[in-house]
Every structure is written in C-alpha cells, then in structure tokens.
Amino acid sequence: MFNGILGCKPDKMEEACGVFGIYGSDEDVARLTYYALYALQHRGQECAGIAVSDGKGMKLHKGQGLVSEVFTDNMVASLTGKIAIGHVLYSTMGTNVALSAEPLICSYLNGSLALAHNGSLTNAKKLKEKLAAQGAVFQASIDAELIVNLIARNGQESMEKALQKAMQEIKGSYALVIMTEEQLIGVRDPFGNRPLCLGKLDNSYVLASESCAFDVLGAEFIRDVAPGEIVIIDQEGLHSFNFSNPVERALCVFEFVYFARPDSTIDGINVMEARRAMGRQLAKEKPVDVDIVIPVPDSGIAGALGYAEGINCVFDMGLMKNRYIGRTFIRPAQSERDLGVRLKINPVTKLVKGKRVGIVDDSIVRGTTSKKIVQMLRNSGAQEVHMLITSPPVIAPCYYGIDTSERSQLIAGQKSPEEIRKHIGADTLSYLSMEGMYRALGQDSGFCIACLSAKYPIEIPTGEKLGKKEV
Question: 111: closest CA among 61, 159, 163?
Fold first, then answer.
C-alpha cells in the first residue's frame, strides 16, 4: 500500500476503519482485541480504541496513533472483563481526529452501551437535526453518536427492539459492533456494503471486519454476518434476526481491489485469489509486450503475479518500499517532493534498466503517485513503461465511508484514458473492464461499484452534496 507523502491528500482511496468484538468469560478479551486490531491496522492508522465490560461496568482506552502507539502492556492488562470491542480509524481529510476516536461509550436507561462503527450514514444530517430538536446533545460529528442516541431513545424496550427501531431510521453503509454490560452485538447494513464476519475461539464468539483477524487469534471462521442481520451473543449463546426486507447485496468492490488484506475472505471470495484473477483477466484483455512485470507495492503484488502469469512473463519486485517510514515522517518541502517519494518507494535499477517494464497497480485516484513512479522508472533506465491497472477507472466519489476526493480531483472523472496516459508519462495505460472485473470475482452482481459507475445503490440526499464524513 503506497499512500503518498504524509500531509498530502493520499493517492489511494482509504478505508474508514475496522471493528472487532469478542464475548468470552474465560479469555483475556482486551489482549485478544489488541492482537486483532493489529491484524486490522491496514483499515485505519489514525486512532485505536478498546472498550471492555466485566458485567458491572465498562472501561475504555482510546487515542490517536497506531495500535502499538496507543496501548502499552500495562494499559491492556488493566482492561479486564469478559466482553470487549475494538476499533481502528482512518480519519477523512480535515476531520477532528481526537473526537472521531471510537469505541464510543454512553450511559442510558438500561445501563452502559459501547459502539464502534465502520461506514457512513447517508441521512446523518437529517437525523442529527431531528435528534437535536428533541434535545439530544452531540460532542462530535461521528455517526456512532447518532446511532447510540437512536438506541438510547428506545431504552425502555428490550435491546432487540431498540436495535430494530434504530436500524429502521438509519440509511447508508454500516458494520457495527455493540457492547452492553452483558451482550456482544453485530449489525450489518441491509446492502452488506461493509464487511462483518462471525467466528469462534474456543468458547468465545468473535466478530470482525475481516477474517484475517480470526487467523491471527487462531479462531475458527463460522460465516459472514448476512446483510440486514443483527447477531446477539450473551450467556445463552448466539441468536440472530433480520431487521430489513431483502435488497440486492451491494458489497463494496474495493474491498477486493484494495482495502482488505489479501489473506481475508469476504462473502465467500478470497481477496488474494480475486486480485490475482483480476491481473490474469487484464492480461487477456490488454496484453503488452514487456520484458518484466513489476507491482506497485504492496497492493499491486497479487495483480502483478496474475498479469505475469497471463502473458507468461517474468515477475519481479522492481520497486522497493521502505517499511520503516511511519506516520511521523517529516513532510518534505515542496522542492523536495521527489525525494520524499524516493524515501518511501524506489526502483531497483538493475532490474529495470534497459527493459520494457509493465507496472501493475490496483487503481489510479489522483494520478500524482503514478506520474512520479513512471518518471522514477525512466530515470532508472527503463526503456518503456506500461501502466497496468487491475480495476476500471475511478470516476466518482464514494458516500459510504470511503475517503475519496471530489470528482474534480479524480483524474479519471476529468480525463480520458489517453489523457491520463499522457499526464503520467507512460507509453501505454490499460484498465481492467467492468465485465472483466466481474468475471475475475466470479459473480456478475452483488457489488457496489458507485465509484466506478457513478450509480449509487444506497440512497443519498438528492440535490445535496455530502461533505466529508468523520466516520
């Protein structure tokens, strides 16, 4: 994953966050949640948090930074309980990061409630106005506050009924983990836009954004939480129910293009296999005559392997990524931008010099990084540079919890493929077709492709441009 230089708008679409939950009285739930958040760190690097319940009350620790920066060993040890939920956040540009940190804990009629959310409510503005008119008070502009308020407003009801009523009022994209003093709850939106899965670790149940978190813990994957399903885990075991009428699934296709870890499986599709199949499919559609195929690390690796297989060409790591530049990397001055890029990623000159190079990436969002990488390869002596993208062009912004630029800043929303090719300086530019992407995924429907088609499956306010969400 190459996200550009710290302090600039990223040249990739960024996932908003990852969630995790565990119910297990015999386990060190906070420590297991800590390890699970490590596995989900790719979904958010701005904040991390863990909340625990011991059946009588709740404890919470959260803060800005990576999981390793937010939690010390002593801090994790102090979070004792039998239920825990965790959250990692990628904050959208211009948001108040400190106020966006989750889980969110509140007290209401029936006790305490903690909630962590992945996604974005498309009717958040309208809901906030309605709740504020009824006397609700908000500290931050996060959807989690709205959802907690809606649940608490029905606090005289059972949790099942309170949840059901709350879910009827919200629209948009969401995967939730919720903790009461005695229950762990998972909720997935009716379209299944955000992933959420269920597993078992000895006598404990676990919920996570991705199955890779289960693998780290040695937990058994049971199944994905179904779109429109509420899963409740307590001392009596697990039970679930649907809170909405069936609609066509609209799982975010960028989970397979870029967001998810390659070792995860989402709704029956393995991410690594899907990305490799996208590379093979692109090789069928747009074969180029090159001497070597290289990926943009790390998100282009699987696609590059597939493309190299498809054209029967040498695959090698012709670009090296510096894995030791962290979040605190000092932003270079404008005159040092190229140096900043080279500090993060750099060509292996011996591999590319004098070669016709096919370079594979998962997507182009703004085009700035692609342009710099093409130039670096040319400076390292590449004879030709062919840019190969294992997804269709990103032409429209996302309103469902993904941090994308406005359409005016999406290069494919403004320029044709040929104009983009000239802009980035490549000899050729090839995108995977929409039909080819579906073929690689093995399904011809069930995905949200709004950013690739400008057709939005989940209602957004008509005539109103949504601002950036703090999700």
Answer: 159
Report how far residue 210's alpha carbon sits from residue 223's, in angstroms, rounded to the nearest whole number.
Answer: 11
| CA atoms of 372 and 344, how far apart (whole Å) | 12
In the chain, which segments carry CATH 3.60.20.10? 17-247
What is the spatial distance between Cα 470 and Cα 89, in angstroms, rounded to a whole number? 10
CATH number for the region 270-443 comes to 3.40.50.2020
Q: What is the pTM of this model?
A: 0.91
Contact 341, 374 (CB under 8 A): no
Question: What's residue 52's pLDDT?
Answer: 98
Residue intervals in the chain for CATH 3.40.50.2020:
270-443
Q: Which residues are catalytically annotated?
A: 17
Residue 241 sits at φ, ψ, to 5 deg, of -155, 160
CA nearest to 467, candidates 16, 8, 93, 191: 93
Question: Helix H segments across 71-197?
Answer: 73-78, 97-100, 124-133, 143-153, 159-169
Phi, psi of 181 (to 5 degrees): -65, -20
252-264 core/surface letters (b: 16 or more CB in 10 A; e: else):
bbbbbbbbbbbeb
Report whether pLDDT(12) > 70.
no
Greatest Cα-to-Cα distance within the chain, rounded to the nearest angstrom: 73
Say which CATH architecture domain 17-247 belongs to. Answer: 4-Layer Sandwich (3.60)
Could you tell me the two tokens for 190? Answer: 């009716």
Query: Which pLDDT score, from 0 to 100, does residue 8 have?
Result: 43
For 268-311, where are the alpha helices, taking DSSP H only? Answer: 271-285, 301-311
- Angle, helices 271-285/434-441, rounded to nearest 10 degrees: 140
